[in-house]
Amino acid sequence: MKPNVFFALSAVVCGLTIALHVFEGGPEFPEIALASGLDAKQSSMYMILWHAVTLLLTVATAAYAAAALRSTYRPAVLFIGILFVSIAVLFLVVGQSMLGTIWVLPQWIIFLAIVALSLPGFRKPVQTAEQV
Question: Does the keyword section mention Transmembrane (predicted)?
Fold first, then answer.
C-alpha cells in the first residue's frame, strides 16, 4: 500500500504546529499568564490547558502519520478532524464575541488548514486494470 500523501502532509503541518505552539506561543502566553499575578489554582489550570493542547497536537501528529501508512487509523483522523473543526469554531466564536474580531487569535486558520489538507486522503484510491 502506498502512503497516503494527504495524511502525511497533515502530519507534517501538525508537527510544525507543535513547534510553533511551543516556541512562539510559549513566551507569549504561559510565561505572561504565570507572571500576571493569577492565584496558584488559576495558574495551574492555565498551564494544564496549555500542556493539554501540546499533547493534543502531538497525538494528532502521530495519528495522521499512522493513517498515512495504514488505513486502519482513518477513524482516528476523522475524530481529530471533528475535534480540530470544533476548536476552530471556538476560536472564531470567542474571538468575535470577546475581542470583536477573529484576527487577534488566528489559530483557527491552522486547525482548519490541517483538516482541509487531510480531507482528500479519505477518498478511495482508483484501481487501475493492472492492480485488479
Answer: yes
Entry pTM:
0.90
**pLDDT class of 34 with cuts at 50, 70, 90:** confident
> Which burial class, exposed, middle or buried, applies to 113 when counting CB atoms under 10 A from its CB (0-12, 13-18, 19+)?
middle
Residue 24: inside a domain: yes
Number of domains present in the structure of the chain? 1
CB 113 within 8 A of CB 13: yes
Within its chain, how far is the Cα of 48 from the centroid?
A: 17
Which residues touch 3 (CB under 8 Å, ≥6 apart)? 68, 69
Give yes or no for a contact between 10 and 121, defined as CB atoms under 8 angstroms apart.
yes
Q: Is residue 127 part of a domain?
A: no
Distance between CA atoms of 77 and 132, rounded to whole angstroms? 28
| Residue that the C-alpha cell 492492480 belongs to | 131
